[in-house]
Amino acid sequence: MKINSYPEKLIRKKILSKIKPEIINKNAPHWWGGIYVGKVLVTKVKIPNEHNRLMHSNKSKHIAHDLRLGAEDFNRLIDCSLKGTEYYIKLRAFI
């Protein structure tokens, strides 16, 4: 399965609202967020800007990789069928 194309603004909104990463750096051109399970830093993710232009799969795959999600789960995250709690359950496998 391939990652769908989504507006950068939508990807940003879903990451910030569902996953709620701890913002590490707001001063760079793109924000960076740390994703913790308990007190353990599992991964860092680049949070896209609020542009309305489409982010195609060749760029989105890097964000999906940082989130430790496959293409199907990344699409589910953005399309609203994957909830934040389900994401953290999946993420526990990497600890």
Features:
two-stranded antiparallel ribbon, 3-stranded antiparallel sheet, 4 helices, single chain, 5 strands, 95 residues, alpha+beta
Please outline what is shown here:
Helix content is 41%, strand content 24%.
Give an overview in words.
The chain is an alpha+beta fold and 95 residues long. The chain has one domain. It has four helices and five strands; from the N terminus they run E-H-E-E-E-E-H-H-H. The strands form two sheets. A three-stranded antiparallel beta sheet has the order 2-3-4, with helices on one face. A two-stranded antiparallel ribbon has the order 1-5. Strand 3 and strand 4 form a beta hairpin.
Radius of gyration: 12 Å
- What number of structural domains do the residues give? 1
Give the overall pLDDT as a whole number: 91
What is the makeup of the main sheet?
A: 3 strands, antiparallel
Structure class: alpha+beta
- Please tally the helical runs, counting DSSP H or I stretches of 4 or more residues: 4
Task: Measure the end-to-end span.
Answer: 26 Å
Percent helix among the residues? 40-55%
Low-confidence stretches: none
SSE string, helices as H and strands as E:
EHEEEEHHH
Q: Numbering strands along the chain, what is their spatial order in the largest sheet?
A: 2-3-4
Coarse morphology: globular
Let me know the number of strands. 5
Beta percentage is 15-25%
